[in-house]
Amino acid sequence: MARVTVQDAVEVVGNRFDLIMLAAKRARQIADGTHDPKVEWDNDKPTVVALREIEEGLTTAETVAADERAAEQEQESRPVLF
């Protein structure tokens, strides 16, 4: 697959600082294995996959925030063992 440039993804997000935060959060989700990639993996690093997802419009700040809230709620609902 062709290389992803940050400029292409900035045009989707609109702000390079927001892009970096969004890509980092999504890459962490992919690297942790908590969420599957939405594009072909192609043996790329999680950051490249995250940028590709953002560029294609498959990942937005809203979807990442919703995933984070769901993970927090799941963690809070787990019983605490002493």
UniProtKB/TrEMBL annotation:
Q: Name one GO biological process term.
A: DNA-templated transcription
Record field: catalytic activity: RNA(n) + a ribonucleoside 5'-triphosphate = RNA(n+1) + diphosphate
Instruction: One Pfam family, please name it.
Output: RNA_pol_Rpb6
User: What is the E.C. number?
Assistant: 2.7.7.6
Asked if Transport is a keyword of the record, the answer is no
Please give the HAMAP family that the UniProt record associates with this protein. RNApol_bact_RpoZ
Query: What is the protein's given name?
Result: DNA-directed RNA polymerase subunit omega
Record organism = Kangiella geojedonensis
Which gene underlies this protein?
A: rpoZ
